[in-house]
Amino acid sequence: MSACPSITVDPNRFRNLFPGLSQVEALATLRKPLEELEDVSDRYLAAAHLVNFPDERTVAALMICAADCHPAQAQRIARRKAVESLARMGARQALPVIQSCLNSEDTYLVENAVWALAELEAEPDAVTNALLQLLKDGRQNRRVVAQTAARLGIQEAVTPLKALRQEEDPLLVTAATAALVRLTGNKDGLAALEDYLLHPDVTVRRAVIQDLMDARAFGALAAIAAAPVSPVFRLRGVRNLADQQHQRGVAQAGALLPLVDRILLDDPGTVTLVHRYDTTPSLDFLVQELYGTDFGRVYLAVATLMASSEADTLAALTQSFADRGWNDYGAHYHMIKLFGWLGDPQPLPLVREALANRRPQFQKSRSAAAITLARLDPRNAGAALQDAACEGSFWELRYAALMALEQLQLPIPPATLADSDWLVAMRAEKTTSNGPTHGGDAGTL
């Protein structure tokens, strides 16, 4: 059995996109006169990169950038990013500068400033009037304004938020509904929010998960887990609500773990589909659907491929994988899952490669690969899965590896019982306390 090193998690795993760029270089770029910029995006990139160096020099430079209202596009986009970076660093001393951005004609800057107010926990009295005015301004992203008003506890926003529930834009209606639940404590609107999880527009389905998180809709956990959107959105929603329960000391393994298991297994049979085919499409059409961004349609294609009697389904998938699926993170994920469901060991090299793939956008494929590896190579999968159960960066991978080890009735690394992520540790405890199982409530791999 592999021995785990101590497991640590990097909360900033996507922040440092320019590891070769120093703080001094980024500061110099941010201060460089516009006419000397080699590329119009350089100042923006510097403002984004400086979030990795949260000290007084960085904060001072970003505040200067955030206060610079020069109309050039290079400065406009840098100013927006400077506001965002200041918020991500928790720089509350920048609040006066950020609040002054609320008067800008640049609606994208206003949007970032409004979001930053919530992140930095601005004093409600200092921003109430400005936010109330923005709630009436149809040019603005009033969805973000509603969310911030709720997060800051601005009770004066209740009346304008009720008016927003009459708007035609569903993204605005759901945000206003969630904000009212949070501000008033009246949960009557939660049932209506859940209905939007099956909205025809995938953008609405994704967004309402955030609204349910904001409204602390713990009763919606099962509905979120079954929503026809990417597992990334579903996991984010379930995980956020689970973390809130954990902080309150009411998280229950028996209720939460089967939901997380189900999302990571991601059988389309456990997803509530919102589309259907009048006639069975061609194999080529179904494979091409795997590249779509509306996972409601993708899951329908996956379910159809799983039920297909076509002898050349695997060949079509592996050919498409070789052509472009290897570099399309959505299709890549679905193909790795399908390889496991089809049950032919031929694609094992692709699965092992996916398990080792550290490109950030392919992380959901790594979790899928852990489960698929257990299906396709049960005799030899143990060592790789035990290693994956110890890997530090992504809790989803460690959790999925534990699921796969449990399915194969293999021992888990003892260190996973003390994983720094409480949900992974809870999953490890369930595995050891119950002994070898075959998937429990969530179904078999």
Describe the structure in brief.
The protein is 59% helix and 0% strand.
Description:
Keywords: Antenna complex, Phycobilisome. InterPro entries: ARM-like, ARM-type_fold, PBS_lyase_HEAT. One of its GO terms (cellular component) is phycobilisome. Belongs to the CpcE/RpcE/PecE family. The protein is 59% helix and 0% strand. The protein is an all-alpha fold and 445 residues long. It has a domain at 275-442: Leucine-rich Repeat Variant (Alpha Horseshoe). α1 crosses α2 (42-49) and α7 (124-135) runs antiparallel to α8. It starts with 22 loop residues before the first helix and ends in an 11-residue tail after the last helix. The model is unreliable at 5-14 and 437-443 (pLDDT under 50).
Shape: globular
Instruction: State the CATH topology of the domain at 275-442.
Output: Leucine-rich Repeat Variant
Q: What are the low-pLDDT stretches, counting only 5+ consecutive residues below 50?
A: 5-14, 437-443
H-E order = HHHHHHHHHHHHHHHHHHHHHHHH
What is the residue-mean pLDDT, rounded to a whole number? 92
CATH architecture of the domain at 275-442: Alpha Horseshoe
Fraction in helix: 55-70%
The structure class reads mainly alpha
Radius of gyration over C-alpha positions, nearest whole angstrom: 24 Å
Specify the CATH homologous superfamily of the domain at 275-442: Leucine-rich Repeat Variant
Number of E strands: 0
What about the largest sheet?
none
InterPro entries: ARM-like, ARM-type_fold, PBS_lyase_HEAT
Protein name: Phycocyanin operon protein Y
Organism: Candidatus Synechococcus spongiarum LMB bulk15M
Keywords: Antenna complex, Phycobilisome
